[in-house]
């Protein structure tokens, strides 16, 4: 397993290099550092000296790729590319455009984000799988038909609606949970309940419908017929045979959910005032803080790849064919 | 009056022309017709299609832009001219649906010099009523009834015309056709189509009549008519939903097929490309790109002729960047399918008959992956309409000056906390979006069932 | 419990069973009508029929496992005193896998891939064991015992394996072990060996026979293979278009089949005896089940059809004591079949095919052909090994001759075909056509050579682009190679080609899905012939078709060869087809040719032990033609790590230490026959021809 892990991390490296180069191009080729400075200083008639000062202050005064005025190794290291992009590989994010240490901010905000994302994912999976199995048990009946209709309606509703309506009903009308905010330690739970609940409910429509088709696909396989021919009860057929096999496409599909988690984090965190990475990014977008957005793009890719590897590992556990081929 | 052609307008009409010409092409080919026949025979699909078309008509009307006079800087669409009254009759601030008075009290100087706190009459909403408190409800009822009668009349004309056409086409007397439609034993579910149309006509005419005299969905903070804004949001939703996939379609098809067919280093490069792109979470990529675009536009403000043009360019760019994030999925799908098709016996047979690679690609591979493209196109639509709202909500979507459901929700985000609570902007935006997305989802389901061979085997 | 209606000696009885398919907004289709069957202890009844006749649905109905759209419309299924169709579902579950067990056609997909085979068998054991026997230790003991009884060695180790670690034959054994877990009285075997190779098929059939002998199990064997029926069944029931048409004792049936359909079916099995004649093919196709009307369902295709056959449904007629037939002919006693044995058609009286008289001039020469597929791992695609699909094959093909390339699945025979056509680029060796070295050609030069060699594939459903018209499919080569660039001329030529293969010109403007399997295969042949090839590689062209349709295609291929003088490289696993069609035979084992010779030599006096085993494993209808069984142990080894020396030595009954060390040389045992085996040289251990029964 260790060898497998090392191989996977090794494979992720060229992708991260690609991401790095891509962000560099996006941030420094379309717009020059001068443009950025102008944007930050906020005045169109800003003087060139003010721009130069700002650039020097934030380390954008260096050449992009090659520093002809430096000597030795510094021709390469004393450049924007090396200082601002390549250093991301060692998670050295540098200072934000407003002068704060990005690495420190991220480390502070990682935990609240995780406290929302992980339970949303896990509870969401459990709820969706259970509901899908229940619907499949009643397949080809009116219950099935009605459920699918409800699911289509659910997934046609904007995620924003779930957030706004959820907050309105749970917080404002029923006063069950605080509307927004965050606290440390166990006190955080009461702030987390609503975002997690909304995250789970918002995912039911698409999740259950997808898993239902996975289960239906499995239920037509030959081995299910074999199990029935053994005299196995329909419940056991579903939970022992079909479920185990459908878990494989479901886990593969989790990869597709990961980017949605980012989207969800962006929305819920800012809406509920939770100091996580999502609200951090959103604030940075609104303040037009390039350094933070750039760091978050890279960090997002890293987290995505980590998620990908974790999914692969769980996938490996679920499928003996892959497990035995890897070991 | 001069015609102004914005880039997205051109692309949108190009798309419509493309769809129509594909329809004419497909009509003569059985294998292309068969799945569509399956689609139009499903009553759900027909109802959904009619609802989507009504959105499409409004969207297209809103995509013909004009400059009313050569000197005017303002660019308006045909739709704007049609709903001129809606567009121009702004109140001062919030007012509830069908209100005749403003939502908040105002200090008014009476004729005798005393000052009073009253709910002032609206400038346009229910302005024709002499005694609003007494007359309003009956006036609304009367106007609605008038609208309904108009709607039913127009509907009857349309239905009779269609049944006449149907009778003429299937060579049967009008009465027989009418009975067949009435009983619901026609191949295409005409009855469902007519019922859907009836609902649309009635709702449409009633709202048209009522909106002449009232703000039927209220007004927003700056007094703009919410009904008008919701209708304007349609075009933005449609553009995002259709152009996004379309913009990236050529790249996805070409690269996906090439990777699957030529394999080797071509495959490696293309795979690397899309793995890298897809490993950046879409929202972040969009955020970064939009941020960069904003910077560029602020620094090069002189390059744009008008605000509309600038907003339009941002919309197109948003489509492009959304396309880049969704492109990888289709590319991967097409690569896998092409890998399979390449090993298909008929491709092997073509190779052994000495058919050139280019011919194999165009004759054997492309036509057999098109259903996949079609399914992706239709399935992606609703997701993109929803995504637009979310992105605009977090300020990385369309230009803030552009009418869109996302912008409506964004500007109304805190209104639920007001006292008295202002619910209509949010509700209107969600409702318009929900109907479109639901119709698109239902339609997409039927299309997928019709095109996906695995699905059709199951029934 | 209901009182038994039927005679007490019947263990299992099916009475008047009918099944229909529910359809949306359309009347239901009756797919099985009025089936009567009965089984006694220790007996094997074969239910014989071609694809789509309703035999598998019947089997599923007996288990009450029909797919949701199919319903039992009436009838009675009686297991001893129990009426199965009247049981509540909970009690039926006790019967399923308990007194009544079933095994399926595809062992590859019939086992759950994520559970160990031990767990899957244990599940069946627990379901049907007495409560006291459900302790884990006892269940495990029973699982081991079951695995042992189906001949799986080292069961304690094997029970922890997952299905993908087992070969097809082993999986079918596991399926049988699972079926035996509940000590069934009746076993329904739905095409249990169709997906397996002949040598494995022989093992599995033998296993079922042994179990039957030991336990008195009654077996309902569902099959389309007449040979399997003849070798394993006691009685048989023939099914056609959802109805039984004949029920008989096996001996009586094969001596004198009574229904016209049975007679034609039996005659359409290719044999060496018929090689100079035409096979009896049944014209037309099975009527679609929603279009059957009153009257005999076979009437459309029957050679002895009479007016009343179209209008009146035939009743059962007694032929002999245990033989009954549903046919009007037997109404007035015995039938004289000679009335319809008309003189053979003119085309049958022909000279023997060219190659048997003319000395072979080599048209195609394959020298030391190797195709290795690299196995790549990791980021930089390191090559860590190779699948040696073809590992040094030598072949020659003369003009107008048919060479059969025979072997079991995975031996590399299809790859040889594709490598000759350069569809798969050879790793080594040469392919020479008319003196031109094909392996060195690239691009345009190769494209121009393509017209000489063409291919016909196994699956006619996958071999045509579903989005093209037949005209464009057949004309594809004419257009690509610039033979008929003009559309009108091309259409003319395509019409001629379709006529040549017996397809009407109306087919031009139709799509492939509108044709039946046999018709599609004809269109595929027309497409290949369009460019006037000299060599046609036929890759199992009939193995996806029913026997009666297979006969049509074989007849067509033979006629075409006589008309056009083309050569066939006929790739197949079906030895009956070989004996009918081929002049020479090459037998392949794990990437190499082990024996090559004239068909008469190889099929009657095989010299390689593998050929002998292969031939003896083929089920044969005629009891007098059966060979001494040479049963092979084990399965085909992996071509990634083939055994050292002679690839066959781990399974060879004659193997000596020498075989594991060196590759055996090619030894000519006659002017035309070559064998790659040491044993032919061992003077006093000379390999006896295995058919000493003759």
Automatic annotation (TrEMBL), chain A:
Domain of life of the organism encoding this protein: Bacteria
Chain ranges passing through the membrane: 12-30, 114-138, 145-169, 189-211, 246-267, 296-318
Gene Ontology cellular-component terms listed: plasma membrane
Compartments reported by the entry: Cell membrane
ABC transmembrane type-1 domain location: 110-314
Keyword Transcription among record annotations: no
Membrane topology: Multi-pass membrane protein
Protein keywords: Cell membrane, Membrane, Transmembrane, Transmembrane helix, Transport
Pfam family, one: BPD_transp_1
GO biological process, one term: transmembrane transport
InterPro entries: BPD_transp_1_N (IPR045621), MetI-like (IPR000515), MetI-like_sf (IPR035906)
PROSITE patterns given in the database record: ABC_TM1
Record-stated family: Belongs to the binding-protein-dependent transport system permease family.
Name of protein: ABC transporter permease
Protein species of origin: Thiospirillum jenense
Automatic annotation (TrEMBL), chain B:
Lipid bilayer topology: Multi-pass membrane protein
ABC transmembrane type-1 domain: residues covered: 234-444
Cleavable signal peptide: none
Keyword Transmembrane helix: yes
Sequence intervals crossing the membrane: 6-27, 39-61, 144-167, 188-208, 238-260, 272-293, 313-334, 369-394, 421-444
Keyword Transmembrane set for record: yes
Primary site of residence: membrane
Subcellular location: Cell membrane
CDD domains: TM_PBP2
GO annotation terms (biological process): peptide transport; protein transport; transmembrane transport
Cited Pfam families: BPD_transp_1 (PF00528)
Recorded superkingdom: Bacteria
GO annotation, cellular component aspect: plasma membrane
This protein's UniProt keywords: Cell membrane, Membrane, Peptide transport, Protein transport, Transmembrane, Transmembrane helix, Transport
Family under the similarity heading: Belongs to the binding-protein-dependent transport system permease family.
Name of this chain's protein: ABC transporter permease
Protein's organism: Thiospirillum jenense
From TrEMBL, chain C:
Protein name: ABC-type dipeptide transporter
SMART domains linked: AAA
Sequence similarity: Belongs to the ABC transporter superfamily.
Listed PROSITE patterns: ABC_TRANSPORTER_1, ABC_TRANSPORTER_2
One annotated GO biological process: peptide transport
Organism: Thiospirillum jenense
Primary location group: membrane
Membrane topology: Peripheral membrane protein
Cell compartment(s), UniProt: Cell inner membrane
Molecular function per GO: ATP binding; ATP hydrolysis activity
């Amino acid at each position: 397993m260790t060898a497998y892990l090392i191989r996977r991390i090794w494979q992720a490296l060229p992708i991260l290099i690609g991401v790095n180069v891509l962000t560099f191009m996006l941030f420094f080729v379309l717009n020059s550092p001068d443009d950025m400075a102008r944007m930050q200083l906020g005045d169109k008639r800003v003087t060139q000296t003010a721009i130069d000062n700002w650039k020097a202050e934030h380390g954008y005064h260096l050449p992009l790729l090659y520093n002809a005025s430096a000597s030795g190794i510094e021709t390469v290291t004393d450049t924007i590319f090396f200082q601002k992009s390549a250093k991301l590989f060692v998670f050295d994010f540098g200072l934000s455009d407003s002068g704060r240490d990005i690495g420190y901010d991220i480390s502070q905000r990682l935990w609240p984000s995780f406290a929302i994302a992980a339970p949303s994912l896990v509870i969401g999976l459990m709820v969706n799988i259970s509901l899908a199995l229940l619907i499949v048990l009643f397949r080809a009946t009116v219950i099935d038909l009605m459920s699918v209709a409800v699911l289509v309606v659910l997934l046609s509703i904007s995620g924003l609606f779930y957030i706004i309506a959820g907050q309105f009903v749970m917080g404002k009308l029923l006063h069950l949970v605080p509307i927004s905010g965050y606290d440390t330690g166990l006190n955080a739970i009461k702030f987390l309940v609503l975002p997690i609940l909304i995250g789970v409910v918002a995912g039911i429509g698409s999740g259950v419908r997808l898993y239902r088709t996975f289960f239906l696909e499995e239920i037509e396989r030959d081995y299910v017929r074999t199990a029935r021919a053994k005299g196995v009860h329909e419940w056991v057929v579903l939970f022992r045979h079909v479920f185990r096999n459908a878990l494989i496409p479901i886990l593969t599909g989790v990869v597709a959910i990961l980017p949605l988690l980012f989207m969800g984090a962006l929305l819920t965190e800012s809406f509920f005032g939770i100091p996580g990475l999502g609200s951090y990014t959103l604030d940075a977008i609104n303040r037009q803080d390039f350094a933070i957005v750039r760091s978050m793009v890279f960090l997002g890719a890293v987290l995505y790849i980590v998620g990908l590897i974790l999914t692969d590992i769980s996938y490996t556990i679920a499928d003996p064919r892959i497990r035995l081929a890897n070991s | 009056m001069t015609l102004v052609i914005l880039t997205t307008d051109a692309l949108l009409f190009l798309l419509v022309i493309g769809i129509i010409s594909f329809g004419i092409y497909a009509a003569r080919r059985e294998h292309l017709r068969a799945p569509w026949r399956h689609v139009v025979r499903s009553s759900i699909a027909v109802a959904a299609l009619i609802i989507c078309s009504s959105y499409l008509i409004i969207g297209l009307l809103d995509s013909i832009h004009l400059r009313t006079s050569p000197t005017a800087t303002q660019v308006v669409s045909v739709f704007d001219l049609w709903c001129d009254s809606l567009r121009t009759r702004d109140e001062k601030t919030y007012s509830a649906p069908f209100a005749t008075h403003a939502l908040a009290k105002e200090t008014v100087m009476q004729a005798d010099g005393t000052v009073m706190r009253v709910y002032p009459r609206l400038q346009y909403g229910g302005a024709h009523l002499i005694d609003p408190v007494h007359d309003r409800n009956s006036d609304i009822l009367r106007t609605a009834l008038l609208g309904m009668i108009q709607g039913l009349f127009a509907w009857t004309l349309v239905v009779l015309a269609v049944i006449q056409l149907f009778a003429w086409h299937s060579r049967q007397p009008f009465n027989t056709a009418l009975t067949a439609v009435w009983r619901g034993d026609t191949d295409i579910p005409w009855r469902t189509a007519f019922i859907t149309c009836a609902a649309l006509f009635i709702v449409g005419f009633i709202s048209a009549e009522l909106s002449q005299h009232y703000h039927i969905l209220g007004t927003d903070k700056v007094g703009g008519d919410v009904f008008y804004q919701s209708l304007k949001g349609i075009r933005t939703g449609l553009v995002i939903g259709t152009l996004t996939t379309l913009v990236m379609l050529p790249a996805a098809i070409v690269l996906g097929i090439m990777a699957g067919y030529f394999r080797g280093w071509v495959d490696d490069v293309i795979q690397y490309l899309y793995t890298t792109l897809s490993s950046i979470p879409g929202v972040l990529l969009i955020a970064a790109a939009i941020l960069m675009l904003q910077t560029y536009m602020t620094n090069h403000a002189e390059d744009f002729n008008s605000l509309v043009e600038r907003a339009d360019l941002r919309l197109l760019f948003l489509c492009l960047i959304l396309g880049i994030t969704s492109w990888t999925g289709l590319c991967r799908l097409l690569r896998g399918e092409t890998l399979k098709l390449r090993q298909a016996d008929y491709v092997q047979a073509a190779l052994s008959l000495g058919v050139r690679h280019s011919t194999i690609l165009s004759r054997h591979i492309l036509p057999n992956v098109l259903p996949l493209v079609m399914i992706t196109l239709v399935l992606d639509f609703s997701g993109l309409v929803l995504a637009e709202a979310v992105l605009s909500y977090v300020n990385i979507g369309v230009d803030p000056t552009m009418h869109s459901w996302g912008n409506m929700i964004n500007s109304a985000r805190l209104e639920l906390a007001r006292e008295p609570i202002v619910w209509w902007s949010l509700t209107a935006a969600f409702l318009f979006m929900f109907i479109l997305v639901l119709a698109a989802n239902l339609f997409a389901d039927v299309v997928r069932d019709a095109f996906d061979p695995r699905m059709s085997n199951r029934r | 419990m209901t009182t038994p209606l039927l005679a007490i000696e019947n263990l299992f009885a099916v009475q008047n069973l009918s099944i229909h398919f529910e359809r949306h907004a359309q009347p239901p289709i009756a797919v099985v009508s009025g089936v009567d069957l009965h089984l006694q202890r220790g007996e094997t009844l074969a239910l014989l029929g071609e694809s789509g006749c309703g035999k598998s649905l019947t089997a599923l109905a007996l288990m009450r496992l029909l797919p949701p759209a199919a319903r039992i419309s009436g009838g009675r299924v009686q297991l001893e005193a129990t009426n199965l169709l009247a049981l509540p579902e909970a009690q039926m579950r006790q019967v399923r896998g308990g007194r009544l067990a079933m095994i399926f056609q595809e062992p590859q997909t019939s086992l759950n891939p994520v559970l160990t085979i031990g767990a899957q068998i244990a599940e069946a054991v627990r379901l049907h064991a007495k409560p006291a026997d459900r302790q884990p230790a006892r269940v495990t003991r029973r699982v081991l015992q079951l695995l042992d009884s189906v001949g799986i060695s080292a069961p304690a180790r094997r029970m922890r394996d997952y299905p993908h670690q087992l070969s097809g034959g082993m999986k079918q054994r596991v399926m049988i072990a699972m079926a035996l877990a509940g000590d069934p009285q009746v076993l329904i075997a739905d095409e249990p060996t169709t997906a397996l190779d002949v040598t494995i098929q022989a093992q599995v059939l033998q296993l079922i026979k042994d179990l039957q002998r030991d336990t008195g199990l009654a077996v309902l064997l569902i099959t389309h293979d007449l040979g399997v029926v003849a070798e394993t069944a006691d009685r048989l029931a023939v099914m056609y278009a959802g109805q039984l048409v004949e029920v008989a004792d096996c001996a009586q049936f094969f001596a004198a089949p009574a229904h016209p359909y049975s007679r034609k079916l039996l005659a359409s099995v290719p044999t060496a005896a018929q090689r100079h004649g035409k096979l009896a093919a049944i014209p037309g196709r099975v009527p679609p089940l929603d279009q059957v009307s009153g009257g005999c369902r076979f009437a459309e295709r029957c050679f002895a059809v009479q007016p009343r056959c179209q209008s009146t449904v035939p009743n059962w007629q007694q032929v002999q004591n245990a033989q009954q037939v549903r046919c009007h002919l037997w109404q007035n006693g015995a039938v004289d079949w000679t009335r319809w044995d008309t003189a053979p058609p003119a085309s049958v009286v022909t000279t023997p095919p060219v190659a048997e008289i003319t000395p072979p001039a080599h048209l195609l020469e394959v020298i030391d052909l190797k195709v290795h597929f690299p196995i790549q791992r990791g980021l930089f695609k390191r090559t860590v090994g190779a699948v040696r699909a073809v590992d040094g094959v030598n072949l020659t093909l003369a003009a107008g001759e048919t060479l059969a390339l025979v072997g079991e699945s995975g031996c590399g025979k299809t790859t040889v075909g594709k490598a000759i056509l350069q569809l798969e680029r050879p790793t080594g060796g040469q392919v020479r056509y008319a003196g031109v070295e094909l392996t060195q050609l690239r691009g345009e030069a190769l494209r121009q050579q393509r017209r000489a060699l063409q291919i016909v594939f196994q699956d006619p459903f996958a071999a045509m682009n579903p989005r093209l018209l037949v005209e464009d499919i057949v004309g594809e080569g004419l257009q690509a190679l610039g033979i008929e660039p003009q559309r009108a001329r091309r259409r003319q030529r395509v019409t001629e080609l379709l006529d040549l293969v017996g397809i009407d010109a109306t087919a031009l403007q139709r799509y492939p899905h509108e044709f039946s399997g046999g018709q599609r295969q004809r269109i595929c042949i027309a497409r290949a012939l369009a460019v006037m090839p000299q060599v046609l590689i036929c890759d199992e062209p009939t193995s996806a078709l029913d026997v009666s349709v297979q006969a049509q295609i074989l007849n067509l291929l033979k006629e075409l060869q006589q008309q056009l003088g083309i050569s066939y490289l006929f790739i197949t696993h079906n030895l009956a087809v070989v004996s009918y069609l081929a002049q020479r035979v090459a037998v392949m084992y794990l990437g190499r040719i082990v024996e090559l010779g004239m068909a008469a030599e190889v099929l009657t006096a095989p010299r390689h032990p593998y050929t002998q085993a292969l031939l003896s494993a083929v089920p044969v209808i005629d009891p007098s033609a059966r060979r001494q069984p040479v049963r092979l142990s084990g399965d085909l080894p992996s071509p990634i790590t083939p055994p050292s020396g002679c690839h066959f030595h781990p399974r060879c009954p004659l193997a000596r230490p020498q075989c594991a060390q060196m590759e055996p040389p090619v030894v000519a045992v006659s002017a035309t026959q070559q064998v790659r085996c040491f044993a032919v040289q061992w003077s006093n251990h000379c390999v006896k021809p295995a058919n000493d029964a003759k």
